[in-house]
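#random but structural
TW: two for the price of one
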Amino acid sequence: MPSNLVVRVRATSSELQDALARVERELELPDGFAPEVVEAAVAASTAPALPDLDRTDIPFLTIDPEGSMDLDQAMHIERSADGSGGYTVHYAIADVAAFVKPGDPVDAEAHRRGETLYGAGTRIPLHPAELSEGVASLLPDQVAPALLWTIPVDADGDWHDVTVERARVRSRQRWSYVDAQKALDAGDGSAGDVLPLLREVGRLREAKEAERGGINLPIPEQEVEVVDGVFRLELREQLPVEMWNAQISLMTGMAAAAMMIEGKVGLLRTLPPPDPRDVARLHRVAKGLGIEWPRDLPYPELIRSLDRSKPAHLALAVACTRLLRGSGYADFDGTVPEQHEHSAIAAPYAHVTAPLRRLGDRYAGEVCVALSGGRPVPEWACTGLPELPSILQGADQRAHAYERAVMDLIEAGLLQGRVGEDFPGVVTSVDEKDPGRGVVLVAGIGVEAPVVAASGKLPLGTDVTVRLTRADLSSRKVEFSLG
């Protein structure tokens, strides 16, 4: 289960804000919405297409980061009524198609953007707030249209006989991850009925992930505080409830992929097996960090064995993200692509659970609700599928460039004023054309940056002491030297 790095800023400075603004200008990222897009969103918000099926009787809840308003998913879990020891998962996904029509200004702008972009405490949304943080969001006590997934899960954690249908729903309670975890840990009943069942199903699905050989790579969030121009960094481990919640989303995406493969039409999220050279590089990193990795131990099992409270193990977990490169999208209508699996999940997979934040989820969800109901897929969804991989791949590239620029900015900010200091690290890669240049991982501060040898070759996969020679916030450049 791949995870992206998340940066949250608890305090800001004009210097940081100016640097972030420069990043957004350099990458030519969107700045607000055009008036006609906002007008169309406001008009759509006044007349949503509410489904006839009323499932406001289901007491849904949401679990999201503190303060989130763009709530894509609401959940309810109950024990199976047949006494089998299984569960029924109801998963409501915001129905963006109830508000956004093919070719309207909001739809056209969503196709230009592709996905919501996240920076350091900021975000550039896919849809105007009138929709994504208003009537289309599954906010508590708001009746909203949704794609309702019903997923029976047996006592072993396997799903079967999945259905999806349009319904009006109403969430009853909004939990933050922190509050949900506190309630579960308290064990005093304050967590209600659903959260304890989420824990049970989440653990079952984690065990199934391990059986499949899937990768669970929850990278800690980096919380940055800036006071009087001084950057301070804290790492926040993802809570167990976050990972159990993610397992419900993953299960839904796997069920969606299976449904589309059987129906021979849809949009899959794909990832080829990792490059053997990247696996070999990871072995060198593990050796340099002093982590034993038997050659016959598959890398997913190594990742599951890591203790992210240890700096060296956290550094290796960050290095493992290189194995998740090469993800893409595969559209099809009639013939299932030969490469249709997601190697990190170790199964076919589709994005369907975040349509407020990802364009492709609206299309994939539309395909699934049609297939589940035995109806033809709407023409707008079928005709739009072929252009989606390039749109979404471009959006992914922008998101990764934005993420990388923000991380470079944060790393430069953390290290400014420390030029000339020595740091322990490990050389994780060496330039094939110039072996005196490469990359060093400084595990103690979680920074991976260029390093230059004063003479000779860099010692790949070896513990070294490097000196910081550059940390420039304005250019977002960090560099170390060796020897």
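TW: number two ↓
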Amino acid sequence: MYGKFLETTTGCVIGGAGPAGMGLLFNALRTGAIAELAQYGLIIVDASASPGVGRLGDYQITANSVGDVFLDCLRDPAMADVFAPLQQSPAYWRIFHQAQQAPLLSEVGELLLLASQLVLDHIVAHYNVQLWSETLITEVIRDNDQYQVWVEHRGQVQRIRTGSLVLNLGGRQDPRCLVDGLKAQGLQAPALAAVRSADSLLRMSPAALRECFAPVVARGGDFVVVGGSHSAFSMLENIASALEPVGLQSVSLVHRSPIRLFYESLEQARANGYEFDPVADVCPISGRVNRSGGLRYRALDVGRQVLERGYVGSTSVRARLLLTDGSDPAQTEAASQVLGNAAVVMQCTGYQPLLPVLRRGDGTVITLRQVTGGLDSDASGCPCDDQGRRLHGLHLFGLGSGLGVDPLLGSEPSFSGRIYGVWQFHHDASRVVIDAVLQRLADLASPQPAIVHLEVGVTHGWPQELPDPAWGKAVIR
């Protein structure tokens, strides 16, 4: 199919070195599991020239955690020597001085990129892990109990045979998912041309937003945000702040479930006069109210102002909230009308995973089953196909995939989405994935695989052993 290519065999491939993939590597290094993973053979594949953070730092919004949460990912004594150079970094001290505040994601991204590069350099140098940067995963084939991972680097094709694949390549927002979801609620769906991804809009500066949407404001076009999460209220604030100077007067927010607010404790929620279910809305592990589904920090402030005053933040832009859960038919009808007439609809309804082509050994396409907020997967991120068959050896838990609510991860019972977050990636979420990968490799009775590169597809003689390709910034045997 690919003609002449190189082939490699290893125990585990980590596809994607963004927040989720790096979270697993941080956790494996901190707990000592990296040595065992490396014994089976470990290859990290990432499309970026500078792996480590994905596009986290591109967002023009605040985080939904305080700075200390991100520092907690770095302060383990087992990592002290690895992270010692961070003490010389201005990025570290900017987050340090915001320990009890929610920092900008651009600042978080800068810190995590530096920390990730230190981790990658360390595990490559000390554990014989391979890092293939600027390398794109183009196709994955599930062949019996193994996976074939096809990758491309600067036009050169390679196949990696592996017993376990951890695949977190980021997320995307498909406007058709929004349109289909609205139709399923009986709402008039907007034209596809009107739908704009919040993922792209939240990366734009105020000046860029004005340049893009000032003509729409001048024509009197209506703006609608769909969603009720952190990104939806961040989008409300960004669009109101950017477009108020050019005449934006109002924006509608359509949400299918009540707006939930996050509080550190029951006492804090009660002191703020917030009504909640003491069982369904409280995480039994942390005691936090709406731990997974509630608005936090800056989004919480914006949400409370909208709920109490009807205006977005400190602007004079009015916000109209329209709940479409069926409890108020008048709101549902109004939502349908504003969606049908909107000039711009901003999609803040979650992500779908970015995936390469997935196939079985016979060439048939594999489609992963989706549920609210992500993929239908078990506690280790092992997904089901559209027939309900578990794809053992494949693990996805990053953006667009997520993990379902699990008692060990902690969440409020009323939360029905998927669990994401940098801290979870670095701790509980990746822990169960690491355990599952190691157990699978042990069950497969894989010896320490010698990584051999062969030229396949030649038409004469035996395959010829070739020197290792110098892919990535650090490839060590």
